[in-house]
Amino acid sequence: MIRIFSILAGAFFSVALLWSFGKGASSYVSEPPKPTVESVYHKHAEGPEGGFSFEGAFGKFDKQQLQRGFQVYTEVCATCHALKHVAFRDLKEIGYNEAEIKAIAAKYKVPEYNATTGEVKTHDGVAKDHFPPVVYGGQGSPPDLSLIAKARHGGPNYIYALLTGYQPQPAEVLKQFPDAKIPAGLNWNPYFANLNIAMPQPLVSEGQVSYKDGTKPTVEQMSADVSAFLMWTAEPKLEKRNQTGWPVLGFLLFAMVLAYMSYRTVWADKKH
Amino acid sequence: MSFPWAKEYTPSHPAMVWLDEKLPLPRFVYNAIGAGYPVPRNLNYFWNFGVLAGFCLVIQLVTGIVLAMHYAANTGVAFDSTEHIMRDVNWGWLLRYMHANGASAFFVVVYAHIFRGFYFGSYKAPREMIWLLGVLIFLLMMATAFMGYVLPWGQMSFWGAKVITGLFGAIPVVGEPLQIWLLGGFAPDQAALNRFFSLHFLLPFVILGVVILHIWALHIPGSSNPTGVEVKTESDTVPFHPYYTAKDGVGLAVFLFLYFAMVFFAPNALGHPDNYIPANPMSTPAHIVPEWYFWPFYAILRAFTADFFIIPAKLMGVLAMFSAILVWFLLPWLDKSPVRSGTYRPTFKKFYWLLVIDVLVLGYCGGAPAAEPYVMISQIAAMYYFLHFFVVIPVVSAIEKPLPLPFSITEAVLGKDEAATVAPAE
């Protein structure tokens, strides 16, 4: 009885699926999906040549690079983008000492909300404060950058590709897709999901920032540096994670050998 | 229960004698997972996954309780409190990565455990109750995992909650009020987040309770084994301790190695980047996808794209998705083959591996965008899924001619001649 009922249930779902499949397949044949401008022109993000120092299970941050990236962030990105999850005290991890951190923090005005009076005052930043919100005058809302390197497919490689990927729209795009005109105020970037990004090219020319450590500030260099810096803001514990991981795995490997040996000993006289 | 030859607990230390008289807890443990539990001697490594699942539950409980000490279930600060755990709480990043990957590990282990059961017929009499409780645990796990994913209040948290609770809206007449009642509002918001947190804290303990029933029910008939032949004599079994504690130790060490390799070196590999974007009800992600362990069922849900007579496509999808799991409850009564183990069922075995491939295909399609050709592939794959459980299993079990079974476990292990010396036939 239950089996008759079950075969009927199976037939019910199968016929319904066949119906859906038939409808889908017939419209697939009568109107095959056309390529879209995104499917043709969107490019897969590639990182800088040679990769980043923090990649892989032995990866480490390059503190010099993070400091350069921080400089790019403060001089360029910070005009529009905030960094709310990062505190000034965290900068110790990228090699700044206490005095330097105090000096960096003091350049910022941090809003302070008084819950009793409802007043908002500002004070000069101190080490324990987080980077304050950024007031953006234009349209739209530039995303906070603290987690951006983990919030996009491709992570830091994506940021690098996006920053170096601005270009004029290739002429053949409009020949193939006449509707794909760049909307007013947007910019063509093949690494951006819908190819038209509101952010104007932020890193435009060599020497836009001047590095103290003598590194040549090419657009590629600045892009790689700020991408590395944003990986640090997104995953500050990356180095500690890698460093903790190896002893843990080593211990477990040892445990595995011990466990296997005791298994062999216990079962030695027992065929199984 | 036990077999007549099960070792009896005999405390030697006076303190243990005293305790055993007042509260026989050591005796209970001894009979449950100690030398007092006789287990078939021929279990293979697929029998490790039950213990591993229990271990995963413990990992989730311990890490989860500590995380709850630092998390705030408030839409205004939930995302920030998660980041606070990642950055400022001592070893908070490790706790959170262990918990997030622990959920994935739990599902990997439980899927292996379930498919072990499918292959070796672990659901068959006299073990139906173990199986029913197991499917119940799986359903509770799905609910718990879903609500846990909502807590960080990222984009996928929010939109996942919206899509999944939206499924209830497909139910005729009561659907919409039910959905509003479940969420405490028209969309996921403070009320939903708070109750999800409360339930996410509660359900693991409910799971723990059902796990205890699951193990209790297991101890009535005792463990099944790869031949599917029931235990006959003492030589068919070994005491759980030290034999299977030692064997489970190997499985546990291998499992922990792989699990921690993920936690330390690829902690975000199984997550979705969008969940590092704070929830924004005004901006829908391009592709809303659940966590990987829901993908096969998500593919079934989305496979129904056309209305079927008077049933809207969405309702069909919801019905099918729930049926896809609920059919497991019927399995002991759909599969009437007297032979348990797939090893001795040549026809069944072929369909079993087809099902494994089918579920992997469904999983792949469930994670892919809802576009062709993935939808058509998942339609075919979903069709096989339903045919497998509702038609193939009952029909094959009725017409299949199984291979000859060994007389006993001992004979299967030692061969006929040697077995005769150990356990002479009566």
Short description:
The complex is a heterodimer of chains A (272) and B (426). Helix content of chain A is 43%, strand content 5%. Chain A has 8 helices and 4 strands; from the N terminus they run ααααββααββαα.
Overview of the structural elements:
- Chain B: It is found in: Membrane.
- Chain B: Residues 230-407 form the Cytochrome b/b6 C-terminal region profile domain.
- Chain B: Residues 15-227 form the Cytochrome b/b6 N-terminal region profile domain.
- Chain B: Component of the ubiquinol-cytochrome c reductase complex (complex III or cytochrome b-c1 complex), which is a respiratory chain that generates an electrochemical potential coupled to ATP synthesis.
- The complex is a heterodimer of chains A (272) and B (426).
- Chain A has helices spanning 2-30, 37-41, 63-75, 98-106, 155-164, 171-176, 219-234, 238-266; strands at residues 109-113, 120-124, 187-188, 196-197.
- With 272 residues, chain A is mainly α.
- Chain A has a domain at 37-86 and 131-241: Cytochrome Bc1 Complex, Chain D, domain 2, CATH 1.10.760.
- In chain A, the strands form two sheets. Chain A has a two-stranded antiparallel sheet. A two-stranded antiparallel sheet of chain A has the order 3-4.
- In chain A, β3 and β4 form a beta hairpin.
- In chain A, α5 runs antiparallel to α7 (219-234).
- The longest helix of chain A is centred in the N-terminal third of the chain and has 29 residues, at 2-30.
- Chain B has 426 residues and is mainly alpha-helical.
- Chain B folds into two domains: 30-267, Cytochrome Bc1 Complex, Chain C (Up-down Bundle), CATH 1.20.810.10; 293-404.
- Chain B has helices at 14-22, 25-33, 49-68, 78-87, 92-120, 128-150, 155-168, 175-183, 190-219, 240-265, 295-303, 313-334, 346-367, 374-399, 409-414, 416-422; strands spanning 38-40, 237-239.
- The longest helix of chain B has 30 residues, at 190-219.
- Chain B is globular, with a radius of gyration of 24 Å.
